[in-house]
Amino acid sequence: MVDQSEREEIQKDIELFYFAYRSFTARPDRILQELSLGRVHHRILYFVGRNPQLPINELLTILDISKQALNIPLRKLIELELINVSISDKDGRVRLLALTNKGNKLEARLTSPQLKHLETVMAAVGKSSVAGWRKMMGELPFV
Amino acid sequence: MVDQSEREEIQKDIELFYFAYRSFTARPDRILQELSLGRVHHRILYFVGRNPQLPINELLTILDISKQALNIPLRKLIELELINVSISDKDGRVRLLALTNKGNKLEARLTSPQLKHLETVMAAVGKSSVAGWRKMMGELPFV
DNA sequence: TATATAGGTCAGTATGATTGACCTATCGAA
DNA sequence: TTCGATAGGTCAATCATACTGACCTATATA
């Protein structure tokens, strides 16, 4: 399958992955710290931003955490008027989450360093590398 | 620079990165939990494995954590006889870390699911995608 | 009407990181 | 040889973030 020198290459890829991800999350982490928020808050804002009117249950599934772990950060975001809660008219038990204008702004502020980060790297490495990166990253969760 | 539809693509890449990294760390995390160890323990074992006779100071720099945060997990690994400490003969202040045989075995056990994970994905996406992935991952920390 | 589902919340616990402070030992330069 | 810098160790207090278990309300559905 894979010979020894290839395996050594892949050893290095593990490291690559670690450092790449760490550098990728460093910038938003700094902004979050200034606001006394954590990564969970960012993730909530991000996924609610991409999926307006997201049921809480689905958010739990996406984030793969307990409802108790979601409860406090989500409550904070609602208190800060970054997230709006409404009741589904199809099922009165279901609460739907959406970003407020304020929430949208913060989400953009947190996500834009990551966008820029990726844009810069993509410009540096060229289109074909980007295509390869996407293909591989897309496959990883399904192995 | 980057137009709107491209920006939307890159939005999705942020998500891709998150899920890819999460799936990548899930397997060793499960093994670690069985052993009552955490990710820091894994990282220590990994970097000491790749860099035998690693000074503690360098390990701190690589991991980018405080010495107090390193202290307890490292002590545990030494107590478990997974890591061996020796004094540098060039500088009596410097402690050098290396894996014991036992440590080597555990490191391999933790890292091999990640190796296999990458190997499987690499086989699925092909060489040119892998090259692109590597190029992009290698650039990310230097932006 | 009974059960399942969606969600909220409290309590207790564990982990892992932080900062601050203070300690020893060693090195290297004045 | 003395002094400041460096490497490392450790204690304490604190904070953030997760967990499980338990119990609550409200709504949907069979």
Summarize the topology.
2 copies of one chain form a homodimer.
Chain A: H1 4-34, H2 39-50, E1 54-55, H3 56-63, H4 67-79, E2 83-87, E3 95-99, H5 101-125, H6 127-139
Antiparallel strand pairs in A: 1-3, 2-3
Helix pairs in contact in A: 1-5, 2-4, 2-5
The structure holds a DNA duplex (30 and 30 nucleotides).
Q: What descriptive keywords fit this protein?
A:
homodimer; 143 residues; mainly alpha; elongated; DNA-binding
How would you characterize this protein structure?
Two copies of one chain form a homodimer. In chain A, a hairpin with a 7-residue loop joins strand 2 and strand 3. Chain A has a three-stranded antiparallel sheet. The mean pLDDT of chain A is 94. The two termini of chain A are 17 Å apart. By secondary structure, chain A is mostly helical. In chain A, 71% of the residues lie in helices and 8% in strands. In chain A, helix 2 packs across helix 4. Chain A is elongated. Chains A and B meet through helix 1, helix 2, helix 5 and helix 6 of A and helix 1, helix 2, helix 5 and helix 6 of B. The structure holds a DNA duplex (30 and 30 nucleotides).
Extract low-pLDDT stretches of chain A.
Answer: none
Determine the strand fraction of chain A and express it as a percent band: 5-15%
- Helix/strand/pairing category of chain A: mainly alpha
Mean pLDDT of chain A: 94
The largest chain-to-chain contact, stated as pair and per-chain residue counts, equals: A-B, 48 and 48 residues
Q: Main sheet of chain A?
A: 3 strands, antiparallel
Number-wise, the strands of chain A total 3
Cα(first) to Cα(last) distance of chain A is: 17 Å
**Quaternary form:** homodimer
Percent of residues in helices of chain A comes to: over 70%
Largest sheet strand order of chain A: 1-3-2
Structural shape of chain A: elongated
Radius of gyration of chain A from the CA trace? 19 Å
- Please tally the helical runs of chain A, counting DSSP H or I stretches of 4 or more residues: 6
What's the order of the H and E elements of chain A? HHEHHEEHH
